[in-house]
Write a structure and sequence with these properties.
The protein is an alpha/beta fold and about 400 residues long. The protein has helices at about 10-25, 35-40, 55-75, 85-110, 115-120, 125-155, 170-180, 205, 210-245, 250, 255-265, 265-270, 320-330, 345-355, 375-390, and strands at about 85, 160-165, 285-290, 295-300, 310-315, 335-340, 365, 395-400. Helix content is about 55%, strand content about 5%.
């Protein structure tokens, strides 16, 4: 039996298990009621795992490999003479800094997941967005770390020089000022003028003496401008992800329905056991009207044409889409229009419960195509039993064409 101790679940493991629940079919695992949400997630270990999530988990390492390749390319381009300082800063300071700033704005400020989220999962919610943002930050930091590691490896195993060049003498002073600015007053660069290619005869050999100081300065600049912000943003993202995971059932209606369904599994499954005594109809007879109300509402398959205009159909597609539609219109719509002969399902019960949880006031209107009084009483009793076993206290009105209210 798999270990399902809640305390053993890391944040990434919780996201993995949550995605398993979201990807699972309608037939969810049965069993004892979970102790809490983490216990519920842990039971998803027996569900099929996502095939794409492991790639997203490895992206920081893949980014580190790309950083090493990018640094290796700078050692041989443009002419194999060494590392061009401005090109190195463009690759490992300018571009990563823009990426980190965009990730912080989109992921942490606006709550948007990176563009590649669709390559990992079709589901969207704040938890998934925060986890993808965290992986993006790790990938950006890994890219720079991989590049710096390869740079120092090359310094230890071969001769590497650092240089830059220009055809406009006035640019030298501007580059020197720019390099001083990058150090933030904490680290000073070696003499910039001496690093200019062609400034002296035999410049490659002369610049070799400054290779260590230039490598140290470049590493400090990348650390101050990229790695330190990535570490701080990663810590903030971890904290927000932990808080969001605790509220995941409220942030994702589809996962919330699955969680509540398993929490109430004993009630649902006992209602289907044959040895239980039948539930007796209770209360006054159901109200009756002769025609549909004028207000729009939700409809369920099996209903003939003639319902009010503006109704939203449910039960014809994905349950997650139905949950999203109910959540978005819970306060605007209150009526549910169904055929009385419809066989109520667990999905219908979950959607009715979700409607109430989202602040709505669901009311059932059942179209009765029967004229036999005993058949009408039988249908009424069946719906009373369904609502009672689902734990739903919802008003029910029979729509019998031609009858008086």
């Amino acid at each position: 039996m798999s270990d399902t101790r809640p305390q053993s679940l890391t944040r990434t493991a919780q996201v993995d298990l949550g995605l398993r629940w979201l990807d699972a079919g309608d037939a969810v695992a049965e069993g004892a009621r979970p102790g809490d949400f983490r216990d519920f997630l842990a039971r998803g270990r027996d569900l099929p795992a996502s095939r794409r999530l492991p790639w997203a988990r490895l992206w920081p390492w893949l980014a580190a490999g790309n950083g090493a390749l990018a640094c290796g390319a700078l050692l041989v381009w443009p002419d194999g003479s060494g590392v061009h300082l401005l090109l190195f800063l463009l690759a490992f300071w300018g571009a990563p800094l823009l990426m980190v700033a965009w990730t912080a704005l989109a992921g942490l400020a606006l709550g948007r997941a990176p563009w590649w989220r669709v390559l990992v999962t079709r589901h969207r919610d704040p938890v998934i967005a925060l986890w993808c943002t965290r992986q993006a930050l790790l990938a950006q930091g890994g890219f720079c770390l991989g590049g710096l590691a390869w740079l120092w490896l090359m310094l230890a195993t071969r001769q590497v020089i650092f240089y830059w060049s220009t055809s406009i003498p006035a640019i030298s002073a501007a580059v020197a000022g720019f390099f001083d600015l990058l150090g933030l007053g904490l680290v000073a660069p070696p003499p910039v003028a001496a690093a200019e290619a062609g400034a002296i005869t035999g410049w490659q050999g002369a610049l070799l003496a400054d290779s260590g100081p230039w490598a140290g300065w470049l590493s400090a600049v990348v650390t101050l401008w990229v790695l330190v912000p990535v570490a701080l943003l990663w810590a903030l993202c971890q904290w927000r992800l932990g808080a969001a995971l605790a509220r995941w059932p409220d942030l994702n209606p589809h996962l919330g329905v699955r969680y509540r369904r398993l929490c109430q599994a004993q009630v649902h499954y006992r209602a289907l056991e044959a040895e239980q005594p039948p539930v007796e109809a209770a209360g006054a007879p159901l109200a009756r009207v002769g025609q549909w109300p004028a207000e729009p509402g939700f409809t369920w398959p099996g209903l003939p044409p003639g319902q009010p205009a503006g109704c939203l159909p449910l039960g014809t597609g994905d349950l997650q889409a139905d949950e999203a539609r109910v959540s978005a219109n819970a306060r605007a719509l209150s009526h549910w229009y169904l055929a009385a002969a419809t066989v109520p399902t667990g999905d219908l019960g979950d959607l009715l419960r979700l409607h109430g949880e989202r602040g709505g006031d669901p009311r059932l209107y059942l179209l009765v195509a029967e004229t036999d009084a005993r058949r009408i009483d039988h249908l009424s009793h069946g719906w009373r039993v369904f609502l009672d076993r689902q734990g739903l206290a919802i008003p029910v009105v029979l729509v019998i064409p031609g009858s008086a209210s």
